[in-house]
Design brief:
Oligomer: single chain
Shape: elongated
Number of helices: 20
Distance between the termini: 86 Å
Structural class: mainly alpha
Strand order of the largest sheet: 2-1-3
Amino acid sequence: MENIDIWWLLIPVSLLPVFFALGWLAARVDIKILMKYAKNVPEHFYAGVNALVDKNTTAAAHHLAEAASMQGNVYELSLSLGKLYRQRGENDKAIAMHKALLDSPDTVGAKRERVLYELGLNYQNAGLVDRAEQILLGLQQSNMAQSANEILLNIYQQDRDWEKAIATAQLLAHDEQTYQFEIAQFYCEMAQAELFRGNDDAAQQKVQAALQANPKCTRANMIAGDIAVKQGRFQDAVAAYSAIEQQNHAYLSMVGERLYDAYDALGNPQAGLDVLTGYAKTFPDVDLNQVIYDKSLLLHGEQTAAQTVLELIRAKPDLNGMYRLLGLHLPELNPQWKADADMMRNVIGRQLQKSFMYRCRSCHFKSLVHFWHCPACNKWETFTPNKIEI
């Protein structure tokens, strides 16, 4: 009985050489198949891939074009070559490549949708936006609908066609990305345009739509305040500008003077100054010192204005504060030191121009002026509301 058990244990061991031989044979068969297919691939294909690795797109385009001309089934290769042409800015070649691929009897179904999508991108890149839009709209019921709508959204933003942008953003919306943030900005663009044309009621409607899409849209309240000021509703203007504190206090610097002027129009400029001073003390990162100094100077004279701003600067000293501090002390300095202090202030001023800018939090694009829509990365409300040291 014991001998029988030992034989059962030896059987798997005795079969190990057989399993090894089968594995070796399978590997050899796979290698032979791989080598067979490799021999059928044109050398230009490998040369093109090697050129891409070396980031030599000119040589890559040449070799891949040669490889495509030698192959029978060229769908993937032609699709990629067209994209490479587009990347190089050779839009006419990209369009011709993808249009030729559309004429192939094998380009049907999902393959055709992919080629149409790439052709739409070619037209967009070439500046033929109408043709791009027509093709991309034709993909609305296809598997490429999501990608096509993303490109359409970019097109509508570039063309400032905000109604179409809103409709497209709503089509793209899903649980993880609702696009409400962007939609609010689109409504704000429309509101700004209506306000510029003098259509106050239409502008107010767009502002309300923006706040409905995104209750924390500070820009909507800024425009609402501007509309109220224009119509002489100064208490409503104060309410609109003040609401920014709860939305995002960093943007208070953009409405500081407008808020004071609304209080002034109500006959209570001191209340406006007190509100701004309170903001500056509560939120040191908000740059309100200049407007506080100007309004305090107007109401109380130079000595009080200087003392008020000095307290704010000392609470949060920085290069900007030092520039203002030197300016405040210049008139009282000994003539022997005044010239040197003025020279130091000028040096600091030049440094401020170089070092303090608005910056996009997404792509870090820098600018001396504030943008709601970053011209570099096309993101909305990514610019810092206050100039920061770069």
